[in-house]
Amino acid sequence: MSFGHYIEVGRMDELGRMDSPVHRLDARVKALATLAFIVAVMSFPRYELSALMPFFLYPFALMAAGNIPFGYILRKLLIASPFALAVGIFNPFLDRQVVMSLGGHGISGGWLSFASIAVRFALTVGAALALVACTGIHRLCAGLERMGLPKVFAVQLQLLYRYLFVITGEGLRMMRGVELRSMGRPLRFRTYASLVGHLLLRSMDRAQRVYQAMVARGFDGRIRVMRPAGVGGRDIAFLVGWVAFFVVARLWNLADGLGRIFTGAGL
Amino acid sequence: MHMADALVSPAVGGTMWAASAGLMAWCARKVRRALDDRMIPMMGVLGAFIFAEQMINFSIPVTGSSGHLGGGMILAILLGPYAAFLVIASVLTVQALFFADGGLLALGCNIFNLGVFPAFIAYPLIYRPVVRDAQGGPRLWIGAMLAAVAGLQLGAFGVVMETTLSGITDLPFRTFVLLMQPIHLAIGVVEGLVTATVVSFVLRARPAAMPEPVAMGRDAGGLRRVMVGLLVAAVIVGGGVSWLASTHPDGLEWAMAKMNGNVGSGAPRDGVHQALAGVQEKTAILPGYAFKSKADAPRPEASATPPGQWPAVSAGTSVAGLVGGLMTLFLAGLIGYGLKRRAAS
Question: Which residues in chain A are contacts of B159 at CB distance < 8 A?
């Protein structure tokens, strides 16, 4: 995790605090719709490609209506892509059965399933990022807690998130100090170990002080959110509408149908 | 070693979700019952610490690479298994949500691989019995090293199992195991070394910061029995259910492929041997290793499935699919753009 990466999380936090029709929706319906989306996308057979395309509508719509910049989500996607693609890249070499032809060139099943993995990666990760960007951690946690997430864990998530900026800043300051004193030499193991040990001790002290301050201000183990969540007609419509769309798009290949109409291949 | 959504089937992802969620609920109850006030901020801050320390790298001599602490073991040592498991789960959740590291469907797998093994296997079954109340010295080093290596080996094997059962990648089980386990042996050694060093540093610098090993020890006996039972049940149920769920359709497809006479085409083998020459060098030392023997993985469907969606190699249908796909993508983008304009005005 680099410095840039850490700054980017702050950006995510800002996006989560914005106000838009999507931000105002109940966190629970957004979480459920996103879960339905991911399950629908991942339940396709391995060689599916065209039928996945209609599913791009969901993350695109969330980002557009929530005023989330596309470029930002795309950049995060690219940073995270290596692992999924590294495991998938073997498919073209292992599965060389030709399953479709395009303009006289045979395309092997491996390339098709690799492309399918790449598309699924973009869909699932894009949707999850869009969900967080247009909900924000606190509303998301409050929503999940009402859906049965253990309270201890919800508080843990929110505190971790809150401390993330503090402790990472602490770590960065320590790193800067070491770098200024070491004249470009890479960190040696012994220095590293005491650096991490000190960071650990400082973090623990920080935890103690912050907690005392929180208790002094009346913290009772719950974090309250400003916009109280309540499921209204709009929320129900959002959930039902999207789930219906996922079911339709899962059962019928909408992209293929559209292509047939336009190429005149017949339905 | 975070798994991504794109490689996990809903059956495997759902099963691992259920297993991890059950464990989380159980740990949450345990933690709430034993909750010492100071534990709440300590858990939050140590989760943040894991993020921060992963930014700090040290150079590994000779190899030219660098290493850092993963953190599962140190959390278990500092917080005990239950709280450590919740912290690891929260770190992975934040990584999945904010860093796109891992994914939502794969989150259950990741929590299981990176949380259960260090917190409930490596810590109570290896670290505690070996280290006992040692305040440093060889016992601490050996215990941390063994526990870290075992935790990471099990975790890496979990990744291989879950990926193979999901059946989305073609990577054969054996090749994947032979790639993952040695890499994670090296990572485990580094992890153990760093864990032991940091723990002995804290013990020297501020012994009071470490939890009293006596209290943990008293708990460990009961915990061990419960955990082993629970884990065996989880593995049987999880493994059985997801195996059934993922082999059934595959078996069906395989049977269809057989009827079409597509099984047994030798083509994939040569290609594989050329393309994976590096891997082949390692795997060739195994007697009887051949890509033909894939009984251990839901492999048959991989090379020889004429998928239902592409019933015949007909240029017409393929082009229609391609054109339609591109057009839908364009349409989805257009609708998004329209919504954005509306939201902006």
Answer: none
Residues in chain A: 267
CA distance B32 to chain A (A): 7
Report yes or no: B115 at the A interface, CB cutoff 8 Å: no
- Asked if B333 contacts A57 with a C-beta cutoff of 8 angstroms, the reply is no
Give dist(CA A167, CA B41) in Å, integer.
Answer: 13
A72 touches chain B (CB under 8 A): no
Of A9, A84, A91, the CB nearest to B98: A9
* Partner residue opposite B86 with nearest CB, options A153, A259, A260: A153
ipTM of predicted complex? 0.76
Over the range B121-151, which residues count as b (16 or more CB within 10 Å of their CB) and which as e?
Answer: bbbbbbbbebbeebeeeeebbbbbbbbbbbb
Q: Cα angle at A193 between B201 and A209, to 5 degrees?
A: 65
pLDDT tens track for B58-85: 776 665 566 677 788 889 988 888 889 9
Instruction: Per-residue pLDDT tens, chain B, 345 aa: give them.
Output: 678 777 788 888 888 888 888 888 888 888 877 766 667 788 888 888 888 887 777 776 665 566 677 788 889 988 888 889 999 999 888 888 877 777 788 888 989 988 888 889 888 888 888 888 777 788 888 888 899 898 888 888 888 888 888 887 777 788 888 888 888 888 888 888 888 888 888 888 877 777 654 344 444 444 555 555 555 555 554 444 444 433 333 433 333 344 343 333 333 334 443 444 344 334 333 333 233 333 333 333 333 334 433 333 445 555 555 666 666 666 666 666 666 666 665
List chain B residues with CB under 8 Å of A163.
44-45, 47-48
CB A3: neighbour CB atoms within 10 A? 11
Reference B9, options B167, B193, B231, B208; nearest CA is B167
B45 interfaces chain A, CB cutoff of 8 Å: yes
For residue A76, the cross-strand partners are none
Q: What type of residue is B120? A: F
Tell me the C-alpha distance between B30 and B182, whole Å.
36
Is the pTM higher than 0.90?
Answer: no
Task: Pick A167's closest partner by Cβ from B29, B49, B331.
Answer: B49
- Is A50's CB within 8 Å of B276's CB? no
CA gap B204, B207 in Å, rounded: 6
Cα separation, B183 vs B157, whole angstroms? 12
Q: Does B13 touch chain A (CB under 8 A)?
A: yes
* Residue of B283, B328, B342 best to disrupt the A interface, most CBs of A under 10 A: B328
* Window 112-171 of A, Cβ < 8 Å to B: 113, 117-118, 120-121, 124-125, 128-129, 131-132, 137, 140, 150-153, 155-164, 166-168, 170-171
Cα separation, A228 vs A63, whole angstroms: 23
Q: For residue B43, give the nearest of A20, A156, A194 by CB distance.
A: A156
Tell me whether strands B58-59 and A105-108 are parallel, antiparallel or unpaired. unpaired
